[in-house]
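Input sequence (88 aa), recorded before submission:
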Amino acid sequence: MQNDTQSEGVIFRHLLATYTANDADSPRIPLFVKEPLLDKHWQELKTMKPERFAAAKAYYIYARAVNDFKGSDHRVNFSVPELRRLQR
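Predicted structure, token format:
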């Protein structure tokens, strides 16, 4: 997966990196983000595998909110509108 240049590989590298971004007490996944996660990556996955897109995007929204707001209740102000937008 580390060398996968397809959109799905880029997305899942970012998902795994985001998931472990704040891990200080446990080993991190030895994964390196090599390129930015762009809308074109999401759109390609959405076209190829809509169900996987929805699940990955929802998880990414959740993980970003947890990391960006360090577990505070303010994460809801970010994640709920984003998840509603995704649902539409």
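Checked by second reader. The radius of gyration is 13 Å.
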